[in-house]
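Student:
Attend to each token:
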Amino acid sequence: MRRVFRLPSVDPFLVWLVAVVAAASALPARGGVADWFGVATNLAIALLFFLHGAKLSRAAIVGGIGNWRLHLLVLGSTYVLFPLIGLATTTLDGWAIDSRLGVGLLFLTLLPSTVQSSIAFTALARGNVAGAVCSASLSNLLGIALTPLLVGLLIHSGGSGALSSWGSVQTIALQLLVPFVGGHLLRPVIGGWVDRNKAILMPVDRSSILLVVYTAFSAAVVNGIWSKVTLPQLGLLLVVSAVILALVMGVNALVARIVGLSREDAIVLLFCGSKKSLVSGVPMAAALFAPATVGMVVLPLMIFHQLQLFACAALAGRFGREAELLDAANAAQSAPRIPQGAEQAAAAAAARDMTIPDACMPGVVANLALLGRHYDRLTGADQ
């Protein structure tokens, strides 16, 4: 059967993001309204990280923490490999791309991995789901503190002026960390309710992000973002984001082969180690950067987010199909084979204390050959 080509599906959340950016471009919040949106944004960020803390299962972390080599490789990809590539992109600042977009490119490389989509793609690809849960959760937990520290070290020290001081980084880290820890400490009380109502709470997550994006882009539009970001710069952002993703995936695949990871663990490293969290990144940007710059900073992250979904969805589907074929091949090899020929028929009969009379042997051999052909057609072994 000829395979039908299908375009990859677009994440509906991206459509909402684009719609919010368009709304902020047409009707940006100004003056007192912008102040109210700023207060609502701060509350939304606190709620978002509170819910992240409440959803984090200690049992899932403990269950997969023993695979320390895998987790160190994922963390190395997230917080070492990505930032090194991000630093390399700073050579584009000023002459090829607006400096604030360059800050956004570097910022996205400092973020934690995703949780939900990393686990979902790992499951689809038939990888180590328990390892993915642990690696992604650990990445997000450490990212609450590591991302602000890396931003202070790599962006502030680079002279971008986006951050005022190390003291502000420490204060912001506490603003994110306190609701997160509070939610996690309350998990024994509210964890069951949170787990049962994930479908209800997901709109809270996403609406919080949309509110932050609207507020950020409103401030950016008031400060003239669309007079500073040109179509060639957007195209360059797309190309650079694709190069970053391809480099990280290629290095992770090579590292998995060099260190001898199993297929299941290599899939975890590929997906968890190459993803960056929009859910964590947008609120962090709103907390870490001046309101007038947040829109420019999160624009590269929004582009990278959709690219990683397309790439990982395609790879996960391919790996899943390969796993199914491998399972089918293994099952066919381990299945009992129908004896063929007089010698095998006699051996099979002797193993069961039976004897095939010489006069009956030609008929038995013919029938076994016919059954063998039917069996190969049914199992696909004749293809």
